[in-house]
Every structure is written in structure tokens, then in C-alpha cells.
Design a protein that fits this description.
single chain, alpha/beta, TIM Barrel, eight-stranded parallel barrel, two-stranded antiparallel sheet, 15% strand
């Protein structure tokens, strides 16, 4: 390059730098990464009476709040409030749900209906278009041997569910953390006994009231979790649910570990205070 060309191009380059330096640094600041990168749904059990009375109206209301998914409860297993839906086939229920603008990826099934009628429940789940088939509890037992026996049963059911094209999951409550064997929570035994290739976990954050955090388990057992139920509790009264972000849970910590845990979706579940459902999704979308 000739000297004159070099000087000219250098002058232009320096001028450009000078112009750029006049702009505030915020113009070029990176957009903060979103912490919540998975879809947000709600658990139907918290609105079971409303859903039983008017499924369409209730789901459309939740779509209006910004929810993308609903996690259903098997009408056959939850007959008290979901009984009005038991008349529908899985295909019919899928159509009713999707017509409201919301999607259904997963559903809860009771331990008893899975033990007694698994083939029919798998057929229903496939018609409903489910990806996640979640056992809603039932492994808690008084002895380690009984827990192990039940885990073996669920492993076998999980293999069958997997063969049908879905992922089996297990949903905890606080009992699996209150109940301990040799000083360890029963939940830890479940993670040892359940086959990670056959049964994944759905973590319920209610156990923060007992001092257990989802992030701890996500880091210790990467890839073992497919979903979570989100709840938060008052700092002054751990029995009272509050809007997510206003309680004792550290949601930034939770979602920072969510990918490592394997979460594919989260469900807001405010059982005793469904009025917080609207503000909770607003909070999650702000993270």
C-alpha cells in the first residue's frame, strides 16, 4: 500500500473511533441473558374446581395471564373435581384444551391407577399427546426395603411408558424429605433406586420450607429432572404461599442450575393461594 493510501485509511479509521466514542457505553451493553428459558405452565390441580365447572373459560383465563402450558391431572385418578372431564377420550380432551390456545405436555397420574390400569392410562396419555407421564406420588414407605420394592415397580412401569414414546416422571411432596433413613432424606434413596433411563424426577419446590433447594439436587444429579412445580412462601410464615419472588426462594439460584438439572418446563402451583398465579408468571418472565 502506498504511503498516501495508508495515511488516508488510518485517518478514516481513527475518525470512526472518535465518533463511536461519543456514544454512551450503554448503547453497546450486552442484553442480560434470560434466566427462565423453559416454557412456563401451571398445574391444573390448583384450579380443579374451576376446571371441573368450566374447562374452556378457566384455560382461556390462564392464557390471558401468559401461560403457555397446563399440566393436567388424570380425570380417572382425580375423580372428585376432575370427574366432569372423565367422559372425554384423550383425543377429545386434547382438542378441548388446544382450542383454548394452551398446550398440554404432561399430566399427573396416581400410583394406584398406574398399578391397576397402566395400559389404558398409556393409551389415554398418547391420545392426549403427552410427552411427560408423571406419577404424582406413592413411593413413600415405612421401610427401605418397601421403598426399594416400589421403586423397582415404577422402573418397570417407566420402561413401558418409555416404549410408548413418553418420559415417566416422579413428583415429590414434603414427605419424601421429612421421612429419613439413617439420617438421609428418603428422596435421596429414591434417586439411587430409580433408573434414570426409565424414570425422571419432577421437583416440587415446596421443600424449601424444610431447607432443601432444587438447585442443590440439580447440581448433584444432572439431567435427572424434567420439570418442576414452583411455590414460594412468606418469610414470616412458611405455611403461607406468596407470589413467586416475594418469598423465601432464591429463584435466580434455582434457574441458574435448571439447565444442568435437565428441566424442560416449569409449572406454577399455588395451591392455597391461586390468586398469585397472574403475578407469578409476570415475575418469572422478568428474570
Amino acid at each position: 500500500m502506498q504511503r498516501r493510501q495508508f495515511l488516508t485509511k488510518s485517518t478514516i479509521g481513527l475518525a470512526s473511533v472518535g465518533v463511536l466514542s461519543q456514544f454512551p457505553h450503554t448503547l453497546f451493553a450486552a442484553t442480560p441473558a434470560k434466566l427462565v428459558t423453559v416454557p412456563i405452565g401451571f398445574q391444573s390441580y390448583v384450579l380443579r374446581k374451576d376446571i371441573g365447572l368450566d374447562l374452556d373459560k378457566t384455560l382461556k383465563k390462564m392464557v390471558g395471564y401468559g401461560y403457555e402450558y397446563v399440566e393436567m391431572c388424570s380425570p380417572s385418578g382425580y375423580m372428585n373435581d376432575f370427574a366432569p372431564l372423565a367422559k372425554y377420550s384423550g383425543k377429545e380432551l386434547k382438542s378441548r384444551i388446544e382450542d383454548t390456545g394452551i398446550k398440554c405436555m404432561g399430566s399427573h397420574f396416581t400410583w394406584n391407577e398406574m398399578k391397576n390400569n397402566l395400559d389404558e392410562r398409556i393409551e389415554f396419555a398418547n391420545q392426549l399427546g403427552l410427552e411427560q407421564f408423571v406419577c404424582s406420588g406413592g413411593l413413600d414407605s415405612p421401610t427401605e426395603d418397601e421403598v426399594k420394592r416400589k421403586c423397582a415397580e415404577l422402573n418397570a412401569m417407566g420402561e413401558k411408558i418409555k416404549s410408548a414414546g413418553m418420559v415417566a416422571g416422579y413428583h415429590n411432596h414434603d414427605i419424601e424429605f421429612k421421612h429419613k433413613f439413617n439420617g438421609r432424606p428418603e428422596y435421596d434413596l429414591l434417586l439411587e433406586e430409580l433408573n434414570p433411563d426409565a424414570v425422571k424426577m419432577q421437583f416440587q419446590t415446596q421443600v424449601i420450607t424444610l431447607g432443601y433447594k432444587g438447585s442443590t439436587y440439580f447440581k448433584k444429579y444432572p439431567g435427572r429432572f424434567i420439570s418442576a412445580h414452583l411455590q414460594d412462601y412468606s418469610p414470616t410464615d412458611h405455611s403461607r404461599e406468596v407470589t413467586l419472588g416475594k418469598g423465601i426462594s432464591d429463584w435466580k439460584d434455582f434457574f441458574s442450575a435448571a439447565k444442568k438439572g435437565g428441566l424442560q418446563i416449569v409449572y406454577v402451583e399455588m395451591e392455597s393461594n391461586p390468586g398469585t398465579l397472574k403475578d407469578s408468571i409476570t415475575y418469572l418472565k422478568s428474570l
